[in-house]
């Protein structure tokens, strides 16, 4: 657990020290692998078997490496391998930079173009406050917290497995899959995302307005939300950001200010960082508790 915490901190620091790092996070090899597998299997492979081969075989290779170097040279090669896996799967785009580009855009057209990076599933970006807040948290789940959670659970295998499944469900690799396998990939991603979104929502309640977040979470489920849908995360984020902006207006020197979409976007990004720091703080406490026992 301590090695995992150190790897996460190193990954965050290296990501800020080397801003060109996202350029190395390319998955052309995975897309090529999907194309090759599709040519070999044709339409005869069942959807679940096809996706299992597409994601499972690369994970088998990663797991074999992770297993054989686990006890080599005091675990240092295993630590380096896990760190490289986390660096590779984090993102792949820089969420901070994407949000900053939207805020600094001078024209509505430039803002919509910059906002496209937050709407990775396609479609026209919506530059309204609630939509941008939800998009930031959806991207945080896909780029940061999903990778982090499964890395803590299963090391390099967990991080790379989550990234490959997420690419198959909603990324560029999705277009390389048959239609039936896309549906299986979306279901697999929903299963992987559900516990992460729940933990993000709980951390949000601790880092922001607890009552607002819990109320939004409860109302979303009471309205009949689907079992594996993570829409409660966006609902809780919108309620939390709205509450924080209302408090800012209440304490403004010149009286209440009109909240804009960019203010909501700024507060959403700030809240994402607070949640990440809370996760790291809990992880650090678990490490200290392990050492104490």
TrEMBL record:
GO terms for biological process: response to antibiotic. InterPro entries: Beta-lactamase_Reg (IPR052966). The chain crosses the membrane at residues 45-65, 72-91, 141-165, 271-292. The keyword Membrane applies. GO terms for cellular component: plasma membrane. Keywords: Membrane, Transmembrane, Transmembrane helix. This is AmpE protein. The lineage of its organism: Bacteria, Pseudomonadati, Pseudomonadota, Gammaproteobacteria, Lysobacterales.
